[in-house]
Specification:
Helices cover 46% and strands 16% of the residues. The chain is α/β, with parallel strands linked by helices. It binds zinc ion.
């Protein structure tokens, strides 16, 4: 599908728990473009010991955010790879308006731009329910969900019988805070692309298949009426 050109990107936006990773892989494959997740890219550069990876290492080791310019260098480097001649799908960046502005400027310098932004919209309550229901086996780390994927016997692993536990990051108040931070940072980004007339909202509070179907419709017909958030 020839939606994108070189240095054009499709942005996939969605809060933690919105199912963005799954849908990003699906959409990138559909479009025949690389799935570019900025966090993965940074880790990859660090492991390979590239100049960009060494520059990012100090920040990552200290647990600090990697500066936007460095993230953009890594993304630009990825767009220079031979499999990105028909653009790329960006996942996980930008998350703030400042990042969105910097991304626009960088792509503009390269003669490209953001072709389309797709927001997978899931109500806050549903996001928290999805994220907070996750439990792991102490023995084999198999993951369960109290609602969507419960073990056969309560609090015991189906695979090895091990005890289930919840990571501190998956506790309800922690995930609620993570979702709130995402929304307060990123809803202005979504407004920005809405006002540029390139935003598409997809109802993410449905099955994976139903969401995929909507995504296919969006990329097949990229110029509908602007949708307000
Ligand atoms: Zn187990």
């Amino acid at each position: 599908m020839g939606l994108l050109q070189h240095d054009q990107v499709l942005l996939l936006l969605g809060a933690p728990g919105a199912g963005k990773g799954t849908q990003a892989r699906f959409l990138a494959e559909t479009l025949g473009v690389p799935h570019v997740a900025s966090g993965d890219l940074l880790r990859e550069h660090r492991e390979r010991g590239t100049a960009l990876g060494r520059a990012a290492q100090g920040y990552m080791d200290r647990g600090d955010l990697v500066p936007d310019d460095l993230v953009l260098d890594v993304i630009a480097d990825r767009l220079d790879q031979p499999d990105a001649t028909r653009g790329a799908l960006l996942d996980g960046f930008p998350r703030t308006v400042a990042q969105a502005q910097a991304l626009d400027a960088r792509l503009d310098q390269r003669g490209g731009g953001v072709r389309m932004a797709v927001y997978i919209d899931v109500p806050t309550e549903a996001l928290v329910d999805r994220l907070a229901g996750r439990w792991l086996c102490r023995g084999c780390q198999t993951s369960y969900h109290t609602e969507f994927n419960p073990p056969a016997v309560a609090n015991a692993c189906d695979v090895c019988g091990g005890e289930l536990y919840q990571r501190p990051d998956d506790k309800r108040e922690v995930v609620a805070n993570r979702v709130a931070v995402y929304l307060s940072d990123t809803l202005p980004v979504i407004d920005r692309y809405a006002s540029q007339g390139i935003l598409h909202c997809v109802d993410g509070n449905r099955s994976i298949d139903a969401v995929q179907e909507s995504l296919l419709e969006v990329v097949a017909d990229p110029e509908p009426e602007a949708i307000a958030v």
